[in-house]
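Form 7-S
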Amino acid sequence: MKKVSVILLLATFCIVFSCKKESVLDATFDCSTKRISNSERVTDFKKNFSIVIPKKMKKELYYNSFQSEIFAADTTKQLSETFIIKISNNSGQLIYNDKFFKSIDSLSKIQEQILVESQIEPFKEKEMYWNVYKSTKKGFTFHQFNSYIKIANDSFINSVIEIYGDEKINERLCEAISILKTIEF
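Output:
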């Protein structure tokens, strides 16, 4: 009886305090999930997805026949102290195959980017491929995070996070990833 009580207590503790496995993404960049304060939920024009963004960030919405996009940046800070995030819902089929990876490699070579890390992992019960590249842009060291999340046979979410400069790269990347994690399809 005592063993059953201990097991029930541990199970309750895990449920209450969220004993879930850390994602590879969080572990790679040493991110701990943070709550986004003073924020608002923003929905794209086509109402395919929404994300939570700090109110201080400037937001722009864009759409055309093939995609609907939310773009956000904190324009009150220097470019080397913040990040730019773009999340879009795209029409089209996403298949993680050789053709997909070759096109990403080809684009990164054209832009003279160096792959830092990449991974395929589960994300909100979907499959996500993400990568981080490093290069130089506008005279700054430049890090770019990209993710691709298949949400249906004919649509996917793409996110791009741009980080300029050499300071607090992981901190800014983790802050942007915390925004990405608020996505609702």
